[in-house]
Amino acid sequence: MRALLIIDMQLGSFRPYELRQDTFAVIDRINRLSDAFRKNGDLVIFIQHDGTKENCFMPGTEEWSLLPELIRGAADIFVSKTANDSFYKTDLQAILRSEGVKELIVTGCATDFCVDSTIKSALTRDYSITVAADGHTTADRPMIPARQVIQYFNWLWSEMTPTEGGIKVETCDAILGA
To answer: 155: buried, middle or exposed (CB in 10 Å: 19+, 13-18, 0-12)?
Structure first.
């Protein structure tokens, strides 16, 4: 079984929407992937960062909420986290094991923080990983535009020494077989 991980696509990270690279196209591609996963009986897992009063991800607040444009299904799973790594002190590993998941498709925000940390953590757990090359986003960083950050991480992940599961980077169309 496969699982689509949709990491931190929360309102607090997208104020304004233009803050992130290619926001609406990324949302559209994630929705296309999630629709295909649901139709195939695979898992769709939304991962949300839980913050504190000191940041904008306090559970239950508007900023903590998922982007309204993301399509949700009745069987979708929601996991809360408090660190960049979606596996750290969460139920994600237990959920994946109980459902027999061997392959992860990774999408979300932010490329260089939570997406990267989750990918590297999943590698050490021997999952087969496909990163949706055009299904993750980030903001401009000091001296580095978001577009270049995304290109760099797509290259980095494609060059990583694979574990038993392996890792590849493909466009959403390639993942969908379009």
So the answer is: exposed
pTM of the model: 0.96
State the chain's maximal CA–CA distance in angstroms. Answer: 44
Report the C-alpha gap between 38 and 123 in whole angstroms: 24
Q: Half-sphere exposure of 127 toward its Cβ, with a 13 Å CA cutoff?
A: 27
CATH superfamily of 2-176: Isochorismatase-like (3.40.50.850)
Tokens of 90: 């969460």
Mean pLDDT of 33-58: 91
Distance CA 30, CA 28 (A): 5
Residue with the bigger pLDDT between 162 and 116: it is 116
List phi, psi (to 5°) of 141.
-115, 165
